Amino acid sequence: MTTEARDVPPEVRAVVLGPDPAEAAGRLAFFRDVLQGAALAEGEEGRVLATLIMRAYGRLPAERVARRLSSLRVEAASRMRAAGARRPGLRQGTGEVEAGPPEPLHAGFFAVDLHRLRHRRFDGRFSDPLTREVFVVGDAVTVLPYDPVRDRVLLIEQFRVGPFGRGDPLPWQLEAIAGRIDPGETPEAAARREAVEEAGLVLGALEKVAEYYPTPGAVAEYLYSYVALCDLPDGVAGVFGAADEGEDIKGHLLSFDRLVEVLASGEIGNAPLLLTALWLQRERARLRR
Question: Which of the residues 23, 103, 245, 247 is marked catalytic?
Fold first, then answer.
């Protein structure tokens, strides 16, 4: 083993070097070119990140993978949360899936992976081989600020490329505050950080609405949604957003009754805000006590 290989943390060494000694030097060079001196997270999260990096070996150039290292860190942290998912209750799936390594098809801010797999069917047999593409998105959080004293909420509005890509003539969406969960960050901490960045708000107590896959048929995104108790005086709604991320975010201060009207009109067109508004409608009396 070379001195350079000894410098790789023991828990990721097998992942980085691979089973073929003839490839070890090339794999190690690729790994180092992607990291560019950056540190791995410790323990299992570091091993998961190394696995995500090395699955691109031989398929994508190191400089391209390096450009999305921050996204890979988010994905690694998301996978760690997924590994601790709740046990099945009603579900009857066995969890048996036979799959080869994912094949990266696209690696930008987001990624698209190709999976070749088969899974155990409900009749006990394995499915035929399946080829499925997955849009890889890290875990995210949404939070709707609610003032129980004034009985009002704060929504945000911003341009969204998804509706634009669908051909929507007005691709601006009314939404809850939202953002990706950074590595080492809890969903609750992410909600508080995003509230400052997107609306200049300091949140009070957080009420968990749900955690869920919004589009499980093809998208790996997992959301944690909250309602946050908050002081929302007149004039609190402004224009915010990180300029270096191209954000242009306008706040809308609405009474609860107006929120229900907008909800009923169909103008709210994204699942997290729909779900959260309906939850608030159910829990509002309790939160106002």
Answer: 245
